[in-house]
Hints:
Blueprint (H helix, E strand, L loop, with lengths): L23 H12 L3 H13 L3 H13 L7 H13 L3 H13 L7 H12 L4 H13 L7 H13 L3 H13 L7 H13 L3 H13 L7 H13 L3 H13 L7 H13 L3 H13 L4 H4 L9 E4 L1 E2 L5 E7 L4 E6 L6 E4 H9 L8 E2 L2 E8 L2 E11 L10 E2 L1 H4 L5 E4 L4 E4 L1
Parallel strand pairs: 4-9, 5-8
Antiparallel strand pairs: 1-11, 2-3, 3-4, 3-7, 6-7, 7-8, 10-11
Amino acid sequence: MKxxxxxFLAGGGLAVALLGTAMARPLEDGVAAYxxxxxxxxxxIFRPLADQGNAAAQFNLGVMYKRxxxxxQDYAHAMIWFRKAADQGYAAAQFNLGxxxxxxxxxxxxxxxAMIWFRKAADQGQVDAQASLGRMYDRGWxxxxxxxxAVGWYRKAADQGDxxxxxxxxxxxxxxxxxxxxxxxAVAWYRKAADQGDxxGQANLGGMYVNGQGxxxxxxxAVYWFRKAADQGDxNGQYNLGVCYxxxxxxxxxxxxAVxxxxxxxxxxxxxxxxxxxxxxxxxxEAKTACLPSSTNKGATEIRLKKSGGGRFLIPxxxxxxxxxxxLIDSGADDVVIPFDVFVTLKSDGTIRSDDxxxxxxxxxxxxxxxxxxxxxxxxxxxxxxxxxxxxxxQSFLTRFKSWSIDNERGVLLLN
Length: 416
């Protein structure tokens, strides 16, 4: 898993570098005020220095506008001050200017402009800009995708000790993108990032131990690194640690722990975790209690389910306020799925309107019990001339809830 640059400012601090000793004391006073949290005083010190052309003060004022510290947040003004400092060759300002173009903050999003400013900063050795250039080439943003160039820039930043670049370089070696596939090199770079506390590097290193790639398979080491990543809130670390608990890899098998970790990763939108959570709660009797809503989630909506012939659950769902139809719960499906013949009927009777249509999909209001969810994406299955398939209730609906679970014993769906 590759990352975008996380830090907005290298080192997390303001610029102290000066263009002239006469301005040294005021600039230092401004930085001191900023570090004490007296942002109003800091901005009052930086502004006259910036107006006199001090690049460090211009950069600092841009930071404060970007963050809304002591002055109202204003990306357009941040852009103005970063540009003034960048035009003087100030590398940190050039990097931040590029980042504004990447994100479209204060200016229209423009990857080509971002590349220009990243390169100016990277050519001066600015590590965040080097790592960012690697990501731009990796993704093909503003330039043709070029893995070899991505590797080159990741390596420059990684050699300076940048943990994100080290983790991304490891991923390039693992996938064989821009370099020959080399699991040992992948492990080496993941370890450098992991040792600096980079959560993605830690989760990726754990994955190498699980798969025995570049290192002997070692579930104890995998659990160690997954836990470090999970403790930082990394979704992949949480999910993979959950898999270890579900399988009893170097830890006692514990479905309650697995479900808890799957749920944390699911809440961050990790699809694999959402699917494993759904499958575990539907198919593993030992996980039933853990899958029930916690005592802090009182007031869950309970919907009585029907069992289909194959032992799977059917649930009554209303589309756009019309009569209920029985949907099959399929946590492995990405979307809500409506068979073509049912779609034709719903469209002809006005249940699905023209403004609901999104190409070959629909965006409708679904009601389950007393829970209404708007703009649910539904795919229309192409079963023209064939026996109608089931209506499926998949992830595009289920993941709209904070949590959901099935009580197999009582035959109810619990929604929060």
